[in-house]
Specification:
By secondary structure, the protein is mainly alpha-helical. It has a three-stranded antiparallel beta sheet with strand order 3-5-8.
């Protein structure tokens, strides 16, 4: 389902017509209030569409809201050395307005959700099936909003009751605690699971709407943020068992990163953000909520951020040499490269001749003597994922909010690898955990892992966290959330490890960008830099914008604003580094 823009009436006032003889109250459909709008299913369905529309804005997933977490991860670095630099280095000042955009846009989403939920009532048993689905979608999207706000800003304001909007005191809330925020996320997803149909219902439920499967997947993610592994494992097993719909891995990994109805909303997708295919869009970029337009493009700018400068991209983000070398370290059972490398990093490889679209960069042939780097001045390995670098559709970057590739926010492979992680945490290394991992490896053509090779939970965790997950999800959204939930910032061994992963070479020598690099050589090699050298405790989260704090006297800064440690706020021991 591609979500088309529906202009909603601004809720400002009730128009009336008067005369000397009598008074006639007439509701102007273009001047409605909260008292006159939303009293029927049709109006609430418009609100549902409005809420979906808000998750494809710049601060949610259309650009900044997606890429801030990507560059927070250890497999991506800021090759433009300008736009995302403070967020990549995890030292963003609280005066940087860019860091506020996600806060702003997710609260727009929450506002629409709160209003709609207020019209649904608290007794779910009294709701019609249509109203259950309306409420379920709003709960899912509100849960998604707070999932992002908590993972980015640590202790956001919890506003869930629309009746509190009647006073500024109700709107100008105070910070929640981290635990309270995650409690709300869990509550919203858990309730949404009971109200929504599965994708097996067909129609719009298999074409992009939030389903019980999407809610269950995110519920498990939220539980894992606080190491509730046993509870999460139960939910993940139910997803695998088909309780929340039928999911399976696509035979071709690349089908998860192409546009078009043949690939989007496929059997592997639990939830994805819907964007119109290029060529079917409007003409107006909606960079902020202020710039709303009935003729909006309804595309995203992730491709612009990732795209090489030579191909018209903004050259902001690049893949780390560590991720590239990780892919190169293990070949398939037939002796070829892992096909996920092709769709993740846009490098020239002799093995790609005859594979998919071959050695191309936006249909332009690459050769060993003419590889492509992300930024012409600073180099970098181009990110191919969620771009058209490998799709064969376009000869250059589609810049601005025009890329039409749906962003698959949760895939079935994530369910399998999370289930393996939870199984390992609860029961130690088991054959069941290995089997789930092998399903993902088999799709890539890699040899099966063997249980006998993993004699401890620490070792299997190392395989999942630093081999299987980065190769499956490299350069996608979510790695920053993982580093936080695993406690990697607060263990000396793990911090040293992600510093090694986050080391890169700034060079315009195209022949050197793929070379292995070492964190230990930063002091003697001026071209080397590390994303985590400037991190100080508390800055694994992004600061709450000072302008927001100034506007709300009840709001205070988080650990990043105060540079306060979160070492005592972890939810379990950190797995020590294990050599595989």
């Amino acid at each position: 389902m591609k979500l088309h823009k529906i202009s909603l009436a601004v809720l400002v006032g009730l128009g009336t017509l008067t005369s000397c003889e009598s008074k006639l109250d007439v509701s102007n459909p273009n001047q409605q209030t909260t008292a006159t709008f939303g009293n029927d299913v049709e109006a609430l369905e418009e609100n549902v569409i409005a809420a979906y529309n808000h998750i494809r804005m710049e601060g949610t997933y259309a650009r900044v809201g997606y890429t801030l977490d990507v560059c927070r991860g250890d497999e991506v670095w800021n090759s433009s050395q300008v736009w995302y630099m403070p967020f990549d280095d995890l030292n963003a000042p609280f005066t940087d307005e860019i860091g506020q955009w996600s806060w702003r846009d997710w609260y727009y989403t929450i506002n629409v959700c709160n209003y709609t939920i207020s019209r649904c009532g608290e007794d779910n048993t009294a709701l019609s099936e249509t109203m259950k689905r309306i409420k379920g979608q709003m709960l899912f999207l509100r849960g998604l909003a707070y999932y992002n706000l908590t993972g980015y800003y640590q202790n956001p304001i919890l506003i869930t009751d629309y009746s509190t909007y009647s006073t500024l005191d109700g709107l100008y809330g105070s910070n929640s605690t981290y635990d309270d925020a995650w409690d709300q996320v869990e509550k919203d997803f858990a309730e949404a699971m009971t109200l929504l149909p599965s994708r097996d219902a067909g129609g719009q439920w298999e074409k992009g709407r939030a389903t019980c499967g999407a809610a269950a997947g995110y519920y498990a993610r939220a539980l894992m943020m606080r190491h509730k592994y046993s509870e999460a494992l139960t939910v993940l097993k139910d997803i695998i068992g088909g309780k929340y719909g039928t999911y399976k891995l696509m035979a071709n990994y690349g089908d998860n990163f192409r546009e078009g109805s043949a690939y989007e909303n496929n059997a592997e997708s639990l939830f994805e953000v819907q964007y119109l295919d290029y060529g079917s869009q409007g003409t107006d970029d909606e960079w902020t909520p202020v710039n709303t337009s009935p003729n909006a493009t309804q595309g995203h700018a992730i491709e612009s951020n990732y795209g090489p400068g030579d191909m018209g991209g903004w050259a902001d983000l690049s893949a780390s040499p560590w991720l590239y070398q990780l892919f190169k370290a293990e070949k398939t059972t037939s002796g070829t490269l892992d096909p996920r490398l092709y769709w993740t990093i846009g490098t020239y490889e002799p093995e790609w001749e005859g594979f998919e679209y071959g050695n191309v960069c936006y249909t332009v042939p690459m050769t060993a003597d003419a590889p492509v780097v992300t930024n012409n001045n600073y180099g970098g390995l181009p990110i191919a994922k969620n771009t058209n670098l490998r799709t064969g559709l376009y000869d250059k970057v589609v810049t601005g909010l025009h890329c039409g590739i749906n962003l698959r926010m949760m895939r079935y492979s994530d369910v399998l690898l999370r289930a393996a992680e939870c199984e390992n945490e609860v029961n130690g290394p088991t054959q069941q955990a290995i089997d789930w991992i092998n399903q993902v490896r088999n799709r890539a053509g890699l040899a099966d892992l063997k249980l006998a090779d993993f004699n401890s939970a620490d070792k299997l965790f190392e395989q999942i966290a630093n081999v299987e997950r980065p190769k499956e999800f490299g350069c996608e959204w979510g790695r920053g959330f993982d580093l936080i939930r695993w406690g990697f910032f607060y263990d000396n061994g793990r911090l040293q490890q992600i510093k090694e992963h986050g080391t890169f070479r700034r060079t315009n020598d195209k022949t050197r960008v793929k070379e292995p690099v070492s964190y230990s050589e930063i002091g003697t090699d001026s071209e080397l830099k590390c994303s985590y050298d400037s991190w100080i405790q508390g800055h694994e989260f992004f600061p709450i914008y000072q302008g927001t704090l100034n506007d709300n006297p009840n709001l205070v800064g988080n650990s990043a604003n105060k540079s306060e440690s979160n070492a005592d706020k972890l939810y379990g021991p950190v797995h020590p580094v294990v050599n595989l």
